[in-house]
Automatic annotation (TrEMBL):
Domain Ubiquitin-like: 344-424
Annotated gene: Tbcel
GO cellular-component term (any): cytoskeleton
Matches recorded under InterPro entries: Leu-rich_rpt, LRR_dom_sf, TBCEL_Ubl, Ubiquitin-like_dom, Ubiquitin-like_domsf
Lineage: Eukaryota, Metazoa, Chordata, Craniata, Vertebrata
UniProt-listed CDD domains: Ubl_TBCEL
Gene3D superfamilies: Phosphatidylinositol 3-kinase Catalytic Subunit, Chain A, domain 1 (3.10.20.90), Ribonuclease Inhibitor (3.80.10.10)
Task performed by this protein: Acts as a regulator of tubulin stability.
Annotated PANTHER family: LEUCINE-RICH REPEAT-CONTAINING PROTEIN 51
Cell location: Cytoplasm, Cytoskeleton
Biological source species: Penelope pileata
Entries under Pfam families matching the protein: LRR_9, Ubiquitin_2
Keywords for this protein: Coiled coil, Cytoplasm, Cytoskeleton, Leucine-rich repeat, Phosphoprotein, Repeat
Annotated protein name in UniProt: Leucine-rich repeat-containing protein 51
Length: 424
């Protein structure tokens, strides 16, 4: 059989991890291992390989010498072959079958849809626990073949594969805990429910950037489909109804939710979004990556009651009545205007005259003197001003700094301003 053209795995491995490019480093924690090589191997004593091999974007098309792979990669546990030119599953199998301790394999962005994965080739993947097939356009037939041959697979990445539907396998994969299937085009809930049927032990489901529009499932059915789901990511999905959010409560073990960028929340403020979501999801302990503390939950639930208290009865969600039972009917929060006062009414005293005036607090002492000049018939240079706080115990305070703003004195309605001529 002719060897495929292009660069081989072993060729790239030798180039990247040669002593010139990857010198051997001594000391604890370096993760570098020098494996024994077969007698007479041309590579003997030449390669220093870590247990994690990163060979992405190297133009690899084939495996190369399998004896060499076995000699140098016996200790390798993680292998990144993303963004290469591997299109034949048989060549991938040659590599993986000679890496006996491999647990993590990244085959993203390789054109593997151009060949069919046979069961005997998939068997070489048996020890892999984490498999990344992003942007490989792997068919569901390929995925099913892999699942049947990987009894210990825990994490599967199927992003950017242009999936519009899910092909359900007749065999469940009991080992899978995490499924990352973002950036596809899964719009209908009937496709998502197939994932629950195939992966009953699923702990984490990442569905971001799929245009899922609604969750069409009864509460009992959701609990049966995803009995172990702890975390779900629905970032930038098409959810537009609060009833869909309420249905997330049907997952019996769900405690972490991500819901940014969905149409439903666009019309709400950032504060409203978080508080309304927390109040509707009583079992959630982490929302959009942030821990929900006990104090924040109570604040959110009280906010929820006040938010809906003026709504017509037919528009009030059931959760409102649950929270009223918990906290009772709450009074609306008082509206407090925290903006600084712009003007006040004071009494201006000069000799025997008293005149009530409205003065602006943003003006300076010098500007106030100009304003009072026509009232008291004194020039500004011949005028002394004193301010008396109606609650102050120390008597009048002279306003002697011409450039100081009046608001800095804390002048309030009802206070007094005394005007006296300067003594010559």
């Amino acid at each position: 059989m002719d060897q495929p053209s292009g660069r081989s795995f072993m060729q790239v491995l030798c180039e990247k991890y040669s002593p010139e490019n990857f010198p051997y480093r001594r000391g604890p924690g370096m993760g570098v291992h020098v494996p024994a090589t077969p007698q007479g191997s041309p590579m003997k004593d030449r390669l220093n390989l870590p247990s994690v091999l990163v060979l992405n974007s190297c133009g690899i098309t084939c495996a190369g010498d399998e004896n060499e792979i076995a000699a140098f990669c016996a200790h390798v546990s993680e292998l990144d072959l993303s963004d290469n030119k591997l299109e034949d599953w048989h060549e991938v199998s040659k590599i993986v079958s000679n890496v006996p301790h491999l647990e993590f394999l990244n085959l993203s962005s390789n054109p593997l849809s151009l060949s069919v994965l046979e069961r005997r080739c998939a068997g070489s993947f048996a020890g892999v626990r984490k498999l990344v097939l992003n942007n490989s356009k792997a068919s569901w037939e390929t995925v099913h073949t892999i699942l049947q041959e990987l009894p210990d697979l825990e994490e599967l990445f199927l992003c950017l594969n242009d999936y519009e539907t899910v092909s359900c396998s007749s065999v469940c994969c009991q080992s899978l805990k995490l499924l990352h299937i973002t950036d596809n085009n899964l719009q209908d809930w009937t496709e998502i429910r197939k994932l629950g049927m195939m992966f009953p032990s699923l702990d984490t489901l990442i569905l971001a950037n799929n245009n899922l529009t609604t969750i069409e499932e009864s509460e009992d059915s959701l609990a049966r489909l995803f009995p172990n789901l702890r975390s779900i990511n629905l970032h930038k999905s098409g959810l537009h109804c609060w009833e869909d959010i309420d249905k997330l409560n049907s997952f019996p073990k769900l405690e972490e939710v991500k819901l940014l960028g969905i149409p439903l929340l666009q019309s709400y403020t950032t504060e409203e979004r978080r508080k309304l979501l927390i109040a509707r999801l009583p079992s959630i302990i982490k929302l959009n990556g942030s821990i929900v503390a006990d104090g924040e939950r109570e604040d959110s639930e009280r906010f929820f009651i006040r938010y809906y208290m003026e709504f017509p009865e037919e528009e009030v969600p059931f959760r409102y009545h649950e929270l009223v039972t918990k906290y009772g009917k709450l009074e609306p929060l008082a509206v407090v205007d925290l903006r600084p006062q712009s003007s006040v009414k004071v009494e201006v005293h000069f000799q025997d005259k008293v005149e009530e005036m409205s003065i602006r607090l943003d003006q300076t002492v010098a500007e106030l003197k100009k304003h009072l000049k026509t009232v008291v018939q004194l020039s500004t240079s011949n005028m002394l001003l004193f301010y008396l706080d109606q609650e102050a115990p120390f008597g009048p305070e002279e306003l002697k700094y011409s450039s100081r703003a009046l608001h800095s004195y804390g002048i309030r309605d009802g206070d007094k301003i005394y005007v006296e001529p300067r003594m010559k």
